[in-house]
Amino acid sequence: MVLLALSFLLVSAACVGTPSQAADETGFINTYPSQLLTGDIYVLKNHERISGNLSGVGTTLIIEEGALVMGDISLVGGSLEVNGRVTGNVNVVAGTTEIGDTAIITGSINQIFNQTKVSPNAVVSGQINTYVLPVSGEQDVSQGITNLMEWLKPGFWLLLQFLRVVSMMIMALIATSLFKQPTFNIIAAIRRSLAVAWGAGLLTMFSIPLVSIVLIVTICLSPLGFILLLALMVCVVWSWTVLSNMVGIQMTKWLHLDWSPEGTAVFGALLLGIVISALTLIPMAGFIINTALCSIGLGGALLSRFGTASA
Questions:
Q1: Quick check: 273 and 164 in contact, CB under 8 A?
Q2: pLDDT computed for residue 14 by the predictor
Q3: Are residues 49 and 197 in the same domain?
Q4: Distances (CA, A) of 145 to 142, 152, 153, 303
Q5: Residue 291: pLDDT above 50?
Q6: Which of 73-87, 206-220, 242-256 has the lowest average pLDDT?
Q7: 128: closest CA among 74, 83, 92, 87?
Q8: What is the percent of the chain where pLDDT is above 90?
Q9: Can you state the angle between helices 285-303 and 261-279, rounded to 10 degrees?
Q10: Which of 8, 83, 125, 311 is the most buried (most CB within 10 A)?
């Protein structure tokens, strides 16, 4: 699944080619097609232009004065410096952006968890749209903490955990009833190669969201990013169902109970849900442990080709 997702990244960069180095009537010497950049430092120099979109992950991108991007710039987890001209939007996620004195941006600047510095001499025709936490800058910090404590009251927390456990039990019942054999195929794959399943699941858990963000900000492939995220969510739910079955099978074996697969799955979901709720009380360790557990089921699904490969 990871290789498939990465292949789509290569497809999005398929238009990358050799630049034309003959000067045209506009004075541009090098003209490049759309580019997908990863890591390192990339500089679009004076008298160079991109005839398309620029997308990057974890890279430092510098658009010098006199350079032109005839499309959008989309950067995730990187650093962007613009002193030239951009005819489209600038989309930045989790990074830093500096718009210099000579920058001309026809579109808008859209940022999420990003720090942007715009020179007063820069020209930005569109808007600067910033995603922020639902607390305004004018709001008192102490008031924000008070609102947070309202959400963390024991009664509300218990209600959330109750709904979580009930949801897990319902999902375990449905998945085991409708996809009994695929679920047990995944369990068999985990038992054969626990370490491999955990590693594959962990890699997928962190790589797919990153790949999806890149695809979403790339206009021509944006639907694919949402599809990947949706597929990951389905796999995560199924992985908890698989783990619920494993816990239920082991516990009923220890207690010498002879229950149906559906009843065993629901029982396991109940026990696993209680454990997960307890782990959420540990601020960071709880998230790490829950992610590691979920990765086991996700990796088992990958190893068994989503339950289609029998033991």
A1: yes
A2: 37
A3: no
A4: 5, 10, 12, 44
A5: yes
A6: 206-220
A7: 92
A8: 21
A9: 150
A10: 83
Residue 79 CB partners (closer than 8 Å, separation 6+): 59, 60, 61, 95, 96, 97
State how many domains the chain has.
Answer: 2
C-alpha distances in Å from residue 253, one per residue of 73, 160, 246, 248: 57, 30, 11, 8
* Region 233-239 average pLDDT: 85
Q: Are residues 280 and 232 in the same domain?
A: yes
* Mean pLDDT over each residue of the chain, to the nearest integer: 79
Domain that holds residue 70: 14-131
Q: Which residues contact 65 (CB under 8 A, 6 or more apart)?
A: 46, 83, 84, 100, 102
User: Which has more pLDDT, 282 or 20?
Assistant: 282
293 and 252, same domain (yes or no): yes
Note whether 40 and 79 are same-domain residues: yes
Q: How far is CA 56 from the centre of its chain?
A: 15
* Statement: residue 171 has pLDDT above 70: yes
* CA within 13 Å, CB half, 294: 20
Rounded CA separation 152/161 (Å) = 12
- Average the pLDDT over each of 11-15, 39-43, 83-87, 125-129 and give the range with the smallest value: 11-15
Calpha distance 294→28 (Å, rounded): 52
Same domain, 238 and 288: yes
Do 49 and 33 contact (CB within 8 A), yes or no?
A: no
Is 79 part of any domain?
yes
138 within a domain of the structure (yes/no)? no
Q: Which residues of 94-118 are buried (b: 16+ CB within 10 A; e: fewer)?
A: ebbbbbbebbbbebbbbbbebebeb
pLDDT over 70 percentage in the chain: 79
Q: Is residue 255 part of a domain?
A: yes
In the block, which residue shows the tokens 């950049």? 37
> What local confidence, expressed as pLDDT, does residue 222 receive?
57
Final residue before a domain boundary, out of 87, 102, 131: 131
